[in-house]
Write a structure and sequence with these properties.
Blueprint: E1 19-24, E2 28-35, E3 43-47, H1 54-58, H2 62-66, E4 70-74, H3 91-105, E5 110-115, H4 118-128, E6 133-139, H5 150-166, H6 171-183, H7 189-200, H8 204-216, E7 230-235, H9 243-252, E8 257-261, H10 267-270, H11 272-288
Parallel strand pairs: 3-4, 3-5, 5-6, 6-7, 7-8
Antiparallel strand pairs: 1-2, 2-4
Helix pairs in contact: 3-4, 5-8
Length: 300
């Protein structure tokens, strides 16, 4: 008789931190990963990209970030195990979820770290909850996704994930996705099945609405008002969000610092050895310029 563990059929490529379902009063229940970090460490909240989950976006980054920060990573509405809203997805709703999560876990101020779609969510979190956001780290993102078909490129860059979530992805797309995961050292079958399961967790109606919302988003009129430390992690080979747009975002934010990383739009997962050290440096830089220090802490 076999003694194999059926749970081994789904195994992430690295151990994941503990996670739990969190009720956001009046909003719904979402899923959050949490790392306590060093005593007194400041808090960062990780905001993932379109079509992903917190784990798919950030699994290579959890451990390195947890050495310096208290880390919270939320599944956005309609993504992963996030709040189910169907086609009623709104980026502003995601931003309000972030502030609600901070309330529930007792965090007064935090650094918002957004990747791709998570960038607009981070920007909106600052815009709508300025007393809560102490700093911004914006990765592979922009102040708008209009013109030059940028919004379309971002959407198409994750359409395989949306198609898989909807159960309509052709076999060729599935093989292509698995090749990308293999490049990210996710070439063992249990990890592949885990990644596919994460992709399928998203609600197709919400993912489609999220892609449309991203195309409509712009912070052009108010991003120059940002008055907290900021960093832009600029993906230099990005074909979904062109580097020139990322640099314009940095130029629009007073005092923002640029942290280049050689890679494309999926570098966070497929080349973590390049991305993670740069992300950590950017987060530490922003945290060092804030006044968010938990009692008994030392500089990060």
């Amino acid at each position: 008789m076999s003694t194999s563990n059926p749970q081994a059929a789904f195994a992430p490529p690295v151990p994941l931190p503990s996670g739990r379902r969190v009720e956001l009063p009046g909003r719904g229940t979402t899923f959050v990963r949490e790392i306590a970090g060093p005593p007194g460490a400041p808090t960062i909240i990780l905001l993932h990209g379109l079509g992903a989950s917190a784990d798919l976006n950030w699994f290579p980054s959890y451990d390195a970030l947890g050495r310096h920060f208290r880390v919270l990573a939320i599944d956005h509405r309609g993504h992963g195990q996030g709040i189910r809203v169907g086609s009623r997805f709104r980026l502003a709703g995601c931003a309000d979820d972030v502030a609600a999560l901070a309330d529930v876990v007792g965090v007064d101020r935090f650094v918002a770290v957004g990747y791709s779609m998570g960038g607009p969510i981070a920007q909106l979190t600052w815009y709508r909850h300025r007393d809560r956001v102490a700093g911004l780290v914006l990765c592979a993102t922009s102040r708008n996704f209009r013109g030059d078909s940028t919004g379309a490129r971002v959407a198409f860059s994750v359409l395989p994930g949306i198609a898989i979530a909807a159960g309509v992805a052709p076999e060729g797309v599935r093989r292509q996705m698995m090749r990308r995961f293999a490049t990210a050292r996710v070439d063992d079958p249990p990890a592949q099945r885990w990644a596919m399961r994460e992709l399928r967790r998203g609600d197709p109606a919400s993912l489609a609405a999220a892609a449309a919302a991203l195309g409509r988003f712009t912070s052009h009129e108010w991003i120059g008002q940002v008055d907290v430390p900021a960093a832009v992690v600029l993906t230099t080979r990005d074909r979904a969000v062109p580097p020139v747009r990322q640099r314009k975002l940095a130029e629009a934010i007073p005092g923002a610092r640029v942290f280049p990383v050689e890679g494309d739009h999926l570098v966070c997962a497929i080349n973590p050895q390049r991305f993670v050290p740069v992300l950590v440096d950017a987060c530490r830089d922003v945290a060092s310029r804030t006044n968010v220090v938990r009692k008994g802490s030392s500089p990060v």
